[in-house]
Write a structure and sequence with these properties.
globular; two-stranded antiparallel sheet; about 550 residues; Growth Hormone, Chain: A; mainly alpha
């Protein structure tokens, strides 16, 4: 009788997913979340009419979204370990879509604010999760290209948002700025379900860490973080409106934010299993890269806020013209980022970043020479310079800062990285708005002191304008009053122009101060980084 022989069973590890399909799949959510940060801005006047809200009340539609966004970002890794990165991404994208539909159907301010916060909670985890998945999918040699693809989505969203929102509002109605997310989001969900698969090594490591988390959930850390970040973001969003420290509410809220964030930091550094791994900042490369990224976003968001305002209030551009004037910077960034990603392993990241800093400062210097006669072409040329600069900054910064982070801690690092970028952008907006207002008041006061009854040029101008008005049939008293108003308007326009110029110049000068931080950005060699960022070769397990 012949005895049956058991043949060895060979179990092959799952083949590597197609990295380009993974990239396209998870970019949909990130792009929509980034667009929704700015797309609402142009629709606010229409919403005020529909909802019967005041200017101060309607701004909370943007504020609530950003606060909810910020709260979730640092918890991305915590949630990913408990439920899996892919599940967290898909759940948050689904929550974002539900919030979008609810926002579109909302007809009261209260409900819209609640649904907008739901949308923000869903969007909060999308950016850091995509960044982590891309770094885990692409090898260390391809890390620059991976971050170039990520950067295109992150930078494209805020730039396209106002233009897309203006088109939708002008041709349809404001609910469609939310409904448009649904078909795109459903396509993204189906692609993520089909093409994105978590790395088994990282899944195993996360299971191990998740067991410790479940036994020692850091409720205190989560609570302190939520209170601290909400307080800080409220101050940044509402400080200018409430005149900063002249408001008791802003002063008290900032004090709460400082104390609570300090307590949160102490808690996370002493907790056995922290909810947010801020110990990663002990790495000087990660710390300096994250700080420079936050400064870059501060300047980016400040100029994205100031330029449309400048073009519409002083140059007489329509909202559509202003949006199209901003688009060349986006196109230049999209064209330059893959090139920067390609040369990442050839040229030292510090050299590329230094070039980016100089180009961004140069663009800001050009903006500080804008006049009331500046054409759309003149604006575009300054923006093209900055577009190349931002491409040289974002790609190497996001790549280098994560270069020494272990793969299983990548979600922790990307959550913190995304958080600091968002907070940096909010700080940039707050500082730009405040400086523009303060410089405008100071400059107007200085100019008015020269427009007096003893100044020959002012007297001649007054007589010229009042004479022209009187020649059109206006009585002498009315003509003089209208002439005074016209001169006052000219003074105000010149003061506003000078204040814009000063803010642009100050932004450029301050950005040059980033250069000393580059000393800490010493990227490890690709071979050394392989352990942290490379995709391991699939193992073949033979079971007898």
């Amino acid at each position: 009788m012949t005895q049956a022989v058991a043949l060895p069973r060979v179990a092959f590890a799952r083949p590597k997913p197609n990295k380009w399909l993974v990239t396209v799949s998870i970019t949909f959510g990130t792009l929509m979340g980034a667009i929704d940060t700015s797309i609402v801005a142009v629709a606010l006047p229409h919403m005020m009419g529909t909802l019967g809200a005041t200017v101060q009340e309607i701004t909370w539609i943007s504020t609530g979204y950003i606060i909810a966004n910020v709260v979730v970002m640092p918890l991305t890794a915590f949630l990913g370990r408990l439920f899996g990165q892919k599940r967290v991404y898909m759940s948050c994208l689904a929550l974002f879509l539900v919030g979008s539909v609810l926002c579109g159907t909302s007809r009261t301010l209260t409900s819209l604010l609640i649904f907008r916060a739901i949308q923000g909670l869903g969007a909060g985890a999308l950016q850091p999760t995509e960044q982590a998945i891309l770094r885990q999918t692409f090898s260390a040699k391809e890390a620059g290209m991976a971050m170039a693809l990520f950067a295109m989505a992150v930078m494209l969203g805020p730039a396209v948002g106002p233009t897309l929102g203006g088109f939708i509002v002008d041709n349809y109605s404001w609910p469609w700025i939310f409904y448009i997310n649904v078909p795109v989001g459903l396509l993204g969900l189906s692609m993520v379900a089909a093409f994105v698969h978590e790395d088994e090594e990282i899944v195993a490591k996360n299971r191990e860490l998740a067991e410790k988390q479940r036994k020692n959930i850091d409720w205190w850390g989560i609570g302190l973080m939520v209170v601290g970040l909400c307080s800080l973001q409220y101050v940044l969003e509402e400080g200018e409106t409430k005149d900063w420290f002249n408001s008791t509410l802003i002063t008290v809220t900032l004090a709460v934010a400082v104390v609570v964030i300090a307590a949160f930091t102490i808690r996370e550094l002493t907790c056995e299993v922290p909810a947010v791994n801020i110990r990663l900042f002990k790495d000087p490369v990660f710390l300096s890269g994250t700080m420079i990224s936050s400064l870059m976003f501060a300047l980016l968001m400040a100029t994205m806020f100031l330029l449309p305002l400048f073009m519409q209030t002083l140059l007489g551009f329509t909202a559509t013209d202003a949006g199209f004037a901003l688009m060349p910077r986006v196109f230049v960034m999209m064209a330059a980022m893959p090139i920067v990603g390609r040369i990442y392993n050839i040229v030292s990241p510090r050299i590329v970043i230094a070039i980016g800093v100089v180009l961004v400062a140069w663009g800001a210097y050009d903006m500080s020479h804008f006049t009331l006669d500046t054409s759309q072409h003149g604006v575009i040329m300054a923006l093209i310079t900055q577009g190349v600069g931002f491409a040289c900054l974002f790609v190497p910064l996001t790549t280098v800062s994560l270069s020494s982070i272990p793969r299983h801690l990548m979600a922790d690092a990307t959550g913190l990285n995304s958080l600091f970028r968002q907070v940096g952008g909010s700080i940039g907006l707050a500082v730009a708005a405040t400086m523009l207002s303060r410089f405008g008041q100071q400059t107007r006061t200085a100019l008015i002191s020269h427009v007096t009854g003893t100044d020959p040029a002012a007297v001649a101008r007054l007589q010229q304008v009042s004479g022209a008005l009187a020649a059109r049939g206006m009585d002498t008293l009315s003509a003089r009053e209208m002439a005074l108003r016209a001169i006052d308007g000219s003074v105000t326009r010149q003061a506003t122009l000078i204040s814009f110029e000063r803010v642009f110049l100050l932004a450029g000068v301050l950005f040059l101060l980033v250069l000393p931080l580059l000393a800490f950005l010493k990227a490890p060699k690709v071979e050394d980084a392989a352990g942290a960022g490379a995709q391991p070769k699939p193992d073949v397990h033979v079971e007898i």
